[in-house]
Amino acid sequence: MCESGDHSFMSDEREDVLDAMDWLLDSLESDDAVSYAEVGGVYQEKTDIVVTDDGPRNRTAFTETGVWLRVFADGAADYRYTNSLDEEALRDEADRAIRSGQVLAQDEPGRFDAYTTHRGTHGGWASEGIHERDLDEKVSVIEAGLAAADDLDLDRRWANYNDAHIEEAVGTTTGSVVRTTLDRARVNFSLTLADGPKVSRYAGSTEGAAFLEEVTDAFEVAAADARALASADPVDTSPGETTVALSPEAAGQLFHFVSHYLECDTCYMGLSPYAVGDRIGPAELAIEDTVHAGSWTARAYDAEVKPTTPTRLVSNGRIERLLHNTTTAGEEDTYPTGNSVPSLGFSEPPRIHARHLEVAAGDADATALRANADVYVERFKRPWFRDEFERVQRSGVFPASALYAKDIDRKSIDSPDRGSAEFPIAEAYRLEDGERAGRVDGMSLEYTPDALRTVSRIGDVRRTVTGVCDKHKSRLPFAVTAPGVRMEAPLTERN
Fold first, then answer.
1. How far apart are CA 229 and CA 247, in angstroms?
2. Full-prediction pTM beyond 0.90?
3. How open is the CA angle 398-400-404, to the nearest 5 degrees?
4. Helices 7-29 & 87-104, crossing angle to 10 degrees?
């Protein structure tokens, strides 16, 4: 652990990172086996805190330095990250990456942008860096947040807070160089009711120290939701086709799930039930992938040094475009918009992924949205994919080369359950005449590829939900700003 006041020490670490990055980039540029490479040098000041009913269980502040590289060789790409900055260790990582391309024997060679050069600096969205607040203050904020639930009968309350002040420089063998600063902070916490469900929440931001002023609201809202659940008696809900109203948060979780089927590599793998031009929802449905200043997912440049720009994915209920990185954009004769999203912590490869989804609001107020609905869902748990091949591929290891997805598709067998999932319901209520009439426990919503076509109303109020999802072992941030929706879907008893 280092003290934040030791500026000379931290300055030396920054220089070590830049020196290592430059050395590795020069080495890869001169290697005839390398067609193209990206190298990033990362300096991070990090905090990790765990607080339970018994008080702080873990509280650490530390500095981490590292270098990552993505190398194209023999038609395939490989990704590596190391905290060892000496030349011998760096050379070893580069050699491993080059050999990996040879071993992969990918059928179609990967593409990269050899002509477009980007140079830029982005200072982030924080007016005050998260690293400028001391550890004790951060612990106090989380303890005060959990205290919002002091009046509740709980079996357990738990919170994990972590942040990172990230200074990153990225260079490519084609001459692009960018430097960015990012202050990313998040808290993941839960309140487990003694006689009821567990209320879990996630909040994240790249606003720096401003996040500490806002995070208390997330605890207070969660405590209020827990009180409502605790005061509602559980009621029976019949399985079968049901008119369901989703809160903006639940709808956001659903739209985030759908966005995975709009990732080009997912389509190449044969996992997506959708294609460009398909109607997936009502004419009012419009979805953009955007970059919000200060959002949990915000970045100025992606891992391929492409500027992050907005992308219209769905318009008038039809898919207009897929999410690409440089390789898949080259395959489809389109352009990348910065969707090669770095994994949190940089230990795993970047993946094609949405940044901050924006779902357009409709005209239904809360009363209209719940009218004629049988169940109101506040939140879902993590979905469960019904097709075994899809479950395995999504959770399994995948190379850093997007076109390898085509090799996987050639070995797969079509399944009627592809693109279908069960969404366990975390928080929900039975509705009578649009009003809450008891708590719904132990049920799941069944999602099929045509589910969004049943959407009959779209709400006029939007909320933002944030979180982290896994794609082929890479942990990626997501954010969705969405309205509530009313739709038809089967409910089943949860196993």
1. 15
2. yes
3. 65
4. 40
